[in-house]
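Form 7-S
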Amino acid sequence: MDKLYENIKNRRIALGMTQEELAKKMGYTNRSSIAKVENGAVDLSQSKIIQFAKVLETTPGELMGEVLPDGQPTEYYDNEIVQAVTDRLRTNPE
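Output:
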């Protein structure tokens, strides 16, 4: 989940948005709330993650690091054999 907070910060910066601007768009009273989010000091509900995704013009999956910007899933498996099998299944589900 730490990736979520890092991705929120990176996406905000990529859009050229300040913490203050993001705070306003999210309905927070000041930038300190965004600083806490980006530092992982707060837990975000699913609805907040969805709201962040909309404001940051991305998807919840991308913010959470579950998919890459091109929509492809990230790899969850460290084992090379499991990765090879999942890659084969993804390209040839039969």
